[in-house]
Amino acid sequence: MELQKQKKESGEDYSWTDYLSLPFTQNVISETLRMANIINGVWRKALKDIDIKGYLIPKGWCVLTSFISVHMDEENYRNPYLFEPWRWEKIGAAANNNSFTPFGGGQRLCPGLELSRLEVSIFLHHLVTTYR
């Protein structure tokens, strides 16, 4: 609401720095994506025999990587079934968290990550400031 008031008084348009100045909005988006990501998991094919924590995955086998099981694991998130955007203030930036994968990771990180977060931020801003 404060940002909207500032923009009306100054007559300026919204900018990228305004988007970055709303950290709690980013916390809400991160928490929403943690709890209800559009992609629940991805299939990967092992290109060679691989040992992960004592489990052998033979070459050629397919593995389902489940994002939701990581996002709802109590070892990664305390009270994982509770919507708690304030947790991101303690955890830090979502981009630095290896247990947060709604946009994939590494070489397969979604190139639309920032655009999608910006679009949701704009939607939330207008919802919160104009909904009656």
Automatic annotation (TrEMBL):
Cofactor needs: heme
Keyword tRNA processing in annotation: no
User: For heme, which residues are the binding ones?
Assistant: C110
Q: Which UniProt keywords apply?
A: Heme, Iron, Membrane, Metal-binding, Monooxygenase, Oxidoreductase, Transmembrane, Transmembrane helix
* Protein name per Swiss-Prot or TrEMBL: 3-epi-6-deoxocathasterone 23-monooxygenase
Concerning InterPro entries, the annotation shows: Cyt_P450, Cyt_P450_CS, Cyt_P450_E_grp-IV, Cyt_P450_sf
Which family does the UniProt entry place this protein in? Belongs to the cytochrome P450 family.
Q: Which domain of life is it from?
A: Eukaryota
Q: Name one GO molecular function term.
A: heme binding
Report how it sits in the membrane: Single-pass membrane protein
The family database entries (SUPFAM superfamilies) matched by this protein are listed as: Cytochrome P450
Q: Which GO terms describe its cellular component?
A: membrane
Q: Where are the transmembrane segments?
A: none
The subcellular location is:
Membrane
Query: Could you tell me which species this protein originates from?
Result: Gossypium gossypioides
Q: Which GO terms describe its biological process?
A: brassinosteroid biosynthetic process; brassinosteroid homeostasis; sterol metabolic process
